[in-house]
User: What shape does this take?
Amino acid sequence: MENQSKNGLDLIRISASKLKGAWGRVFLASLIYIAPLVLFCLIPYAGWAISVALFGYLTLGYLNFMQQTLKGNNPSFKVLFVQPEYFPAIMLGIIMA
Assistant: This one.
């Protein structure tokens, strides 16, 4: 494997070369990931609970989207919202929120 990173700057350079032409999709996926969480956090009490419930699902979906994009695939934005793993998603949301 020729593209092994030795530090963070190498990792950024390698990722940038793999994302050629896909920056718009990555930015839009990031916006889709962050916007609902921020909006729900603005709602007192109930918004926090909703954010915890959504955070794990969106995080796993976002990671899957980025992984597929870096592999050269062209994933749909539906990947952000479809997660077959229920328990890990909820636990990730509770731990990270």
Notes: Residues 21-96 form one domain. Residues 46-70 form the longest helix (25 residues). The chain has one domain: 21-96. The chain has a mean pLDDT of 78.
